[in-house]
């Protein structure tokens, strides 16, 4: 199954990979656990999913020992990949002492076999929106599409009014961008946070990154956000080796740690 999250991230659950909706050739493979976790979450958008439910569905039901630490780490990895693939913010939030919630739209992309019997598979332009309450899929009628289109127009106008209101109040609406820090050997290093921590700190704490960069072309993504009263610490280092043509061959998580 293929899903589009917030019109920004394409998730292929069969191939266990995510990519940018605008640049589908840029592919990041997921572990089996991360893929199962993401699929469980996007089936229930805008709903709080308790930790116990996710641990059962993703770990226990598949013969693995459940672990809060593993759940936290996989959530952190998914967030980092979302940030590295798209400028659109994917709101996968932590609900303290309860669980996690994905706030946003999730669309199922249907695939159909050519009627003539040539076995060619085409993605249809028509998509089914996952219902937040039940997680089931429903087909839109033509009338329903017209209504949805009108609704989107109204929402767009409201968003524009809110944006103008923010500007009038002097509130910044600019989203945080990924920082390209430096070119090192065969690697480009990207900081996923706004703290400005230099790439040299990654190299000093994780020597394996240095050896990876000298062997193959890759992108390194890292986040060394510091612990403070307002936000939990995130420590993340991932090396994504480039394909000769496009996208990534694979991504290796050197470190993934989150206190949430």
Give a structural overview.
This protein has 260 residues and is an alpha+beta fold. It folds into two domains: 2-106, Winged helix-like DNA-binding domain superfamily/Winged helix DNA-binding domain (Arc Repressor Mutant, subunit A, Orthogonal Bundle), CATH 1.10.10; 179-258, no CATH class. Helix content is 31%, strand content 32%. It contains six helices and 14 strands. It has helices spanning 32-42, 51-59, 68-85, 142-168, 199-205, 207-215; strands at 2-5, 9-12, 17-20, 27-29, 48-50, 91-95, 99-103, 106-113, 121-129, 179-184, 187-191, 218-223, 234-242, 248-258. The strands form three sheets. Strands 4-3-2-1-8-9 form a six-stranded antiparallel sheet. A hairpin with a 3-residue loop joins strand 6 and strand 7 (99-103). Helix 1 (32-42) crosses helix 2 (51-59). It is globular.
């Amino acid at each position: 199954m293929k899903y589009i999250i917030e019109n920004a991230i394409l998730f292929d659950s069969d191939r266990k990979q995510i990519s940018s909706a605008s640049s589908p050739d840029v592919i990041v493979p997921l572990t089996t656990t991360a893929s199962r976790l993401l699929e469980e979450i996007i089936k229930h958008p805008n709903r709080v999913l308790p930790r116990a439910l996710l641990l059962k569905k993703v770990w226990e039901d598949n013969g693995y020992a459940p672990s809060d630490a593993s759940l936290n780490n996989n959530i952190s990895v998914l967030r980092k990949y979302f940030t590295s693939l798209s400028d659109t913010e994917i709101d996968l939030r932590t609900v303290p002492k309860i669980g996690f919630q994905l706030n946003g739209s999730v669309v199922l992309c249907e695939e159909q076999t050519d009627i003539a019997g040539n076995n060619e598979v085409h993605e249809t332009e028509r998509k089914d929106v996952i219902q937040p309450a039940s997680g089931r899929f429903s087909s839109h009628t033509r009338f329903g599409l017209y209504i949805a289109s009108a609704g989107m127009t109204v929402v767009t106008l409201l968003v524009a009014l809110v944006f103008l209101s923010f500007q009038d109040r002097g509130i910044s609406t600019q989203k945080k961008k990924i920082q390209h820090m430096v070119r090192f050997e065969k690697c480009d290093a990207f900081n996923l946070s706004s703290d400005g921590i230099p790439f040299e700190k990654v190299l000093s704490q994780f020597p394996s990154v240095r050896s990876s960069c000298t062997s193959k072309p890759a992108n390194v993504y890292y986040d060394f956000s510091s612990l403070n009263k307002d936000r939990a610490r995130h420590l993340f280092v991932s090396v994504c080796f480039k394909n000769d043509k496009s996208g990534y061959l694979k991504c290796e998580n050197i470190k993934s740690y989150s206190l949430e």
